[in-house]
Amino acid sequence: MRRLIPSLALPVLLAACAAPGPTLEQRLATFINRSEGDLVAQLGVPVRSYETEGRRFLQFEQRQTVMVPGDPWGYGYYGYRRPWAVPSSYAVVQCDMTFAIRNDRVESFTLRGQGCG
C-alpha cells in the first residue's frame, strides 16, 4: 500500500515556496524611462527634491508600523524561565526612495532603510 502523506505534502511545500509577488525594486523599476509626471502621478508629491548638474532628485518616503512579537512565556535564549514576560511592541520602519530625473525622464532610483525589503 502506498503512503499518501508525502504526495499530499508536496503541493503544500511548492505553494509555500512561491513568491508572493514582485519585490519593491521590481515594482519601482517599471518607472525607469518614464516621465517625471508619471512618477508623481503614481507615487504622489515627493517629500524632498534637489537639483544639481542637470539632474533632479526626488525623494519619496514610505513608513509602516509593524508588530514585534514578544515572549509571552518569558523564556530566555537558553530555555530558562525569566520572572517576567516580554510584551509585544510596535516599531516604525521606513523606506526612502530617491529617483534621479534627467531630461524629464526617470534615470535611476535608490532605496535606503529597513522597510525596503
UniProtKB/TrEMBL annotation:
Q: Key word Signal present in the record?
A: yes
According to the record, the signal peptide region is: 1-18
Q: Which PROSITE patterns match?
A: PROKAR_LIPOPROTEIN
Question: Keywords in UniProt for this one?
Answer: Signal
Name of the protein in question: Lipoprotein SmpA/OmlA domain-containing protein
User: Per the UniProt entry, what species is this protein from, by scientific name?
Assistant: Teichococcus aestuarii
